[in-house]
Write a structure and sequence with these properties.
The chain is an alpha/beta fold. Helix content is 21%, strand content 22%. It contains seven helices and 14 strands. The strands form three sheets. The chain has a six-stranded antiparallel β-sheet with strand order 8-9-13-12-11-10, with no helix packed on it. Strand 2, helix 2 and strand 3 form a beta-alpha-beta unit. Helix 3 runs parallel beside helix 4.
């Protein structure tokens, strides 16, 4: 598996690489390309904040932006020096960052791009028109965008350090989960969710090709294209395959990630959480607790100001919204 890790020389881009390393499965990653893009028409084509020489003052006429980019690439590449079976390549391109990252992904047949958003404190979100948003939209493979963790203080900090809002969860949720199934059904005896089982042919007859590709084959719709990405309508979100209730609009929030986001399901046992080791990393897949259809993935610890600090990243095509009367 080939992974591209983009750096703009910022500390946040280095954190993104380190974050990826915490859960990536090095045995499945054969090649990493650490990529920096120099913007020749910008007032500062490249800014290096992470190498040892970054703090040394240099006269403008003596600056080498290619040298700065190479120094930043070296620092990020060094993070993976202990991955003995993974080839780590260093690449520098010149042009528009989003365009060059996408071109590198296409040329290198990459299966994942890792990059940061809000890299120099400008934004904690993936803004429309930002480099991260453009790469998400145009890349031929999934894009992992690592947001900066917001700094909280005072009452907000104390509130977020308080007890969890869902103490009955059977296991921590997130990409670092260790169990194959993180949530076990815990309904009282006699109140078990009805299971829906159909043949593959029956599912194909019921679902559209796009619905089948996501719900039954584990696909992912393109970011910022889903029906419910920015919907604020009050109501209940149900599984499009079997109709069981999954989420409520009261837990939906704007994450700017490109897919509908919820901080909790309507009931914990309405979804099953499965360890997912595809794409060379460990994530937590979300499936319908009734028909076992693929919904998306859940992440935690990203710093969103929600009661659970979790983000259920769900495909719109997996859901049906029933507006509140």
């Amino acid at each position: 598996m080939h992974v591209i890790i983009a750096t703009d020389g910022s500390k946040q881009s280095l954190r993104a690489a380190r974050y990826f390393k915490t859960f990536a499965d090095e045995e499945k990653i054969t090649e990493i390309s650490v990529l920096a893009v120099i913007r020749p028409l910008a007032s500062l084509p490249f800014i290096d904040e992470i190498s040892q020489g970054a703090k040394a003052p240099v006269a403008m006429e003596k600056q080498s932006f290619r040298a700065a980019a190479a120094a930043a690439v070296d620092v990020v590449a060094a993070e993976f020096a202990d991955w003995q079976d993974t080839v780590v390549r260093k690449k520098i391109r010149s042009g528009t960052p989003s365009t060059e990252i996408v071109r590198a992904a296409v040329a290198g047949d990459a299966e994942l791009v890792v990059m940061a958003s809000g890299s120099r404190g400008l934004s904690e979100a993936v803004l429309m028109g930002s480099t991260a948003q453009r790469v998400q939209y145009a890349a031929p493979c999934p894009v992992l965008v690592v947001r900066p963790t917001p700094v909280v203080s005072g009452r907000s900090a104390r509130r977020r350090r308080g007890p969890p809002q869902h103490p009955d969860r059977s296991a921590p949720v997130g990409i670092s989960g260790r169990r194959t199934v993180l949530h076990e059904l815990n309904r009282d005896e006699g109140d078990v969710m009805a299971k829906v089982s159909k043949t593959d042919q029956e599912w194909r007859e019921q679902l559209s090709p796009a619905e089948y590709a996501v719900l039954r084959e584990g696909g992912t719709e393109r970011p910022f294209t889903g029906e419910y990405t920015d919907t604020e309508t009050e109501g209940v979100y149900s599984c499009r395959a079997c109709g069981v209730e999954l989420f409520r609009s009261t837990t939906k929030f704007h994450s700017n990630c490109g897919w509908p986001s919820f901080y909790a399901p309507s009931q914990d046992d309405n979804v099953n959480l499965i360890e997912d080791r595809s794409m060379g990393m460990v994530r937590t897949e979300v499936r319908c607790g009734s028909c076992d259809s693929h919904l998306g993935h859940v992440f935690e610890g990203e710093g969103y100001p929600t009661p659970t600090d979790q983000r259920y990243c769900i495909n719109s095509v997996s859901l049906t919204l029933e507006p509140q009367n």
